[in-house]
């Protein structure tokens, strides 16, 4: 008569949350996970970061996405993590809006005087 919690509410072991920094390869993304470590002698907290190669089978990730990754068996020489879920999608870049306006010819004219 033991009650177990559903797997969706319980955090998976070996999961981390990070930000996608590169999606240049097929089915692989680079994710940076930042964390803080306390210095053993002085007690000051130091910010550190670690890069992971993550398997993205559907090529659904884009740069800037906040994702949860989990450990798995080695999939290649450097890839031993899989995508668990996308926590937060990346906001659309401002450059995309500017380039669309310039291409359509609707960008505001530069109002500086040349003198």
Automatic annotation (TrEMBL):
Provenance organism: Phycisphaera mikurensis (strain NBRC 102666 / KCTC 22515 / FYK2301M01)
Gene3D superfamilies: Nucleic acid-binding proteins (2.40.50.140)
Xref: InterPro entries: NA-bd_OB-fold (IPR012340), Ribosomal_uS17 (IPR000266), Ribosomal_uS17_bact/chlr (IPR019984)
Protein family membership: Belongs to the universal ribosomal protein uS17 family.
NCBIfam families the UniProt entry points to: PRK05610.1, uS17_bact
Pfam families found in the cross-reference section: Ribosomal_S17 (PF00366)
Function text: One of the primary rRNA binding proteins, it binds specifically to the 5'-end of 16S ribosomal RNA.
GO cellular component, one term: cytosolic small ribosomal subunit
Annotated keywords: Ribonucleoprotein, Ribosomal protein, RNA-binding, rRNA-binding
Subunit structure as annotated in this protein's UniProt entry: Part of the 30S ribosomal subunit.
SUPFAM superfamilies reported in the protein's UniProt record: Nucleic acid-binding proteins
Protein name: Small ribosomal subunit protein uS17
GO BP, sorted A to Z: translation
Domain of life: Bacteria
GO molecular function: rRNA binding; structural constituent of ribosome
